[in-house]
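User: Hi! I have a protein structure encoded as tokens and I'd like to know what sequence might fold into it. I'm fairly new to this, so please keep things simple.
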């Protein structure tokens, strides 16, 4: 009974919940930092668990140009901020003289952070990006909760709200910090330096887990240097192609892809998250090149058994004005395990876009097969041999497709028109 009563008493203390909020905020921020690194490096292969569509999309928010301040990811700054809050709670006990001034400093920190979070939520996410990040919102709640508990901890003796505010946000008495042993200051300083080192090295550790390492980095830099001199191809665009963006843009991106190809799925995810910020600057065109011998005569053996059917369904979606909804559903929702289950299971995954009746009608319509074979013929004519094959103004991209490389190549190509 005693342990239960002690635990209930602990749950009622503001300090306990400050520790809880700072830990939740810290863990969430670290995840967002790793997530940001994976997105920018092109390691992320599919939508994250907190992305449910165009409005609720952590991926788009975390890879946007607003996700960094002076080149530093906001998620990394958030992790450092929550780590300081955690240390602040654990550094000085409520019985020590330095507790009150430290709580006032933390109150100012959390108040300013709350104002900044409101700006990120209502201005950046909801108005500018028109999308919402659930995990970002969780860190905002942690900050607001910590502020409330900070206010409660420092002003619990006051009854008038105005006096509570003065006590919480009043000028701290820094002289009280002298009562804290120097060894403790030294120990906390070492912990802070160590955590900064972890934050600095974390992106390198995350990237080292991918194949895109030093050798690839050198190849990428050489590719940038040779970009303007690369040979170009002129691809015809037809009404059967899925297209998006600004048709009048001088930057045209053409992708030959296969809906059953795992590498195409990864590229589609990167394009999905990156290109939405270039809508007025580029014109993106999707062409089918299924690696399936049932419709592609270039293949001597069967590679992707359902790729031709998926390509034909893409042309149906294009005729119904649902191409990009189908594109995202097929690439971002279908997994390798789903494909192994067979086409009936695939049709269930695609049913939010195309009903089973529409799928059946589409696959029996010879027009859809003709449209796909025409795109395959184009790929054959221009010697496309693999998927995904992505061209910017007819120049084939032969380096890993990441958010960073796309931004760089689009900027390089734009500079040629100036």
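Assistant: Happy to help. Inverse folding works backwards from shape to sequence: for each of the 418 positions I chose a residue that suits the local structure. Here it is:
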């Amino acid at each position: 009974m005693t342990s239960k009563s002690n635990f209930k008493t602990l749950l009622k203390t503001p300090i306990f919940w400050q520790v809880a909020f700072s830990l939740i905020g810290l863990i969430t921020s670290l995840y967002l930092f790793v997530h940001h690194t994976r997105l920018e490096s092109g390691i992320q292969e599919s939508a994250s668990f907190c992305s449910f569509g165009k409005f609720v999309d952590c991926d788009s928010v975390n890879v946007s140009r607003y996700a960094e301040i002076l080149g530093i990811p906001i998620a990394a700054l958030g992790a450092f901020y929550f780590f300081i809050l955690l240390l602040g709670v654990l550094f000085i006990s409520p019985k020590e003289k330095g507790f009150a001034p430290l709580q006032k400093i933390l109150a100012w920190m959390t108040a300013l952070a709350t104002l900044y979070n409101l700006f990120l939520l209502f201005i950046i996410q909801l108005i500018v990006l028109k999308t919402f990040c659930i995990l970002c919102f969780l860190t905002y709640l942690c900050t607001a909760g910590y502020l409330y508990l900070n206010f409660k901890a420092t002003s619990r003796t006051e009854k008038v709200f105005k006096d509570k505010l003065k006590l919480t946000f009043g000028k701290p008495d820094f002289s009280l910090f002298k009562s804290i042993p120097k060894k403790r200051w030294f120990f906390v300083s070492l912990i802070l330096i160590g955590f900064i080192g972890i934050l600095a090295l974390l992106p390198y550790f995350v990237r080292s887990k991918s194949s895109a390492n030093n050798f690839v980095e050198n190849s990428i830099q050489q590719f940038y240097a040779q970009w303007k001199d690369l040979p170009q191809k002129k691809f015809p665009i037809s009404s059967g192609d899925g297209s998006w963006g600004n048709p009048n843009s001088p930057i045209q991106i053409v992708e030959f892809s296969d809906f059953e190809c795992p590498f195409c799925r990864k590229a589609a995810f990167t394009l999905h998250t990156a290109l939405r910020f270039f809508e007025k600057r580029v014109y993106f065109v999707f062409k089918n090149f299924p690696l399936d011998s049932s419709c592609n005569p270039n293949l001597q053996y069967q590679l992707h058994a359902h790729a031709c059917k998926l390509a034909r369904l893409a042309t149906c979606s294009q005729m119904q004005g649902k191409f990009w909804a189908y594109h995202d559903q097929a690439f971002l929702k279908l997994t390798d395990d789903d494909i192994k289950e067979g086409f009936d299971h695939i049709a269930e995954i695609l049913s939010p876009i195309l009903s089973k009746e529409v799928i059946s009608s589409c696959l029996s319509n010879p027009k859809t097969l003709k449209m796909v074979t025409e795109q395959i013929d184009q790929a054959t004519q221009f010697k496309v041999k693999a998927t995904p094959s992505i061209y910017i103004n007819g120049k084939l991209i032969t380096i890993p497709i990441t958010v960073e490389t796309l931004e760089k190549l689009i900027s390089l190509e734009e500079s040629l028109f100036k």
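A useful reference point when you look it over: The chain has two domains: 2-208, 226-415. Feel free to ask if any position seems puzzling.
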